[in-house]
Amino acid sequence: MRKAQREITGQKDLLDVLERCQTIRLGLSGTEYPYVVPLSFGWDLQNGQIVLYFHCAQEGLKCQLLAQNSKVCVEADIFHGYHGTTTKYESVIGFGTVVLVREEQERIHGLQRLLQHCDIADYPLQRCSALAHTAVYKINLHSITGKRNLLQQ
Fold first, then answer.
1. CB-neighbour burial class of residue 141 (10 A; exposed 0-12, middle 13-18, buried 19+)
2. Which domain, by its residues, includes 125?
3. DSSP alpha helix (H) spans, 21-103
4. Number of structural domains, the chain?
5. Could you give the maximum distance between any two Cα atoms of the chain, in Å?
6. φ, ψ of residue 128 in degrees (nearest 5)
7. Cα(65)–Cα(34) distance, rounded to whole angstroms?
8. pLDDT truncated to tens, each residue of the chain (153 aa)?
9. The predicted structure's pLDDT at residue 30
10. Which tens digit of pLDDT belongs to each residue from 74-113?
């Protein structure tokens, strides 16, 4: 990292930023061009590894690309405003592997983590008619870095 003083170190601090982010941007390898898509997400810590969950329709370009290549990049950020021409921000970038979650208990767990992160934990998943048509994926992050610029006023 070019400006080491801006690096966010420690899993606790990285998770703090991730928790305050509302959206992740998932970077996929496309056929001719990279493909980036914003997603709602939830996260979990499993055996010391950060795992992200997201959902989508069971078909479409994202699903096609994930079936071809499960290696992804994830970005999330918090914009705190401008200070002159400089941006005040916090961000994380991670690299990992995506897995389609097939086991029903883990599908529900992933969706519950997503709903909790989106502040709608009381949403009645069991009564959701779209659940049968929803794909749930998890991203096992192999590495994650963070950076912030919180200029003093």
1. buried
2. 4-149
3. 61-68
4. 1
5. 50
6. -80, 115
7. 10
8. 677 778 798 999 999 999 999 999 999 998 789 999 999 999 999 999 999 999 999 999 999 999 999 999 999 999 999 988 889 999 999 999 999 999 999 999 999 999 999 988 888 777 676 777 899 999 999 999 999 998 764
9. 82
10. 999 999 999 888 899 999 999 999 999 999 999 999 999 9
Distance CA 147, CA 62 (A): 27
Residue 41: which of 89, 122, 112 has the closest Cα?
112
Query: Residue 137 to residues 84, 98, 107: CA-CA distances in angstroms?
Result: 40, 7, 8
For residue 140, give both structure tokens.
Answer: 């096992």
Cα separation, 94 vs 86, whole angstroms: 24
Please give the helix or strand (H or E) that residue 113 lies within, else none.
Answer: helix 104-117
CATH (domain of 133):
2.30.110.10
Name 16's bridge partners: none
Determine which helix (DSSP H) or strand (DSSP E) holds 110, and give its type and residue range.
Answer: helix 104-117
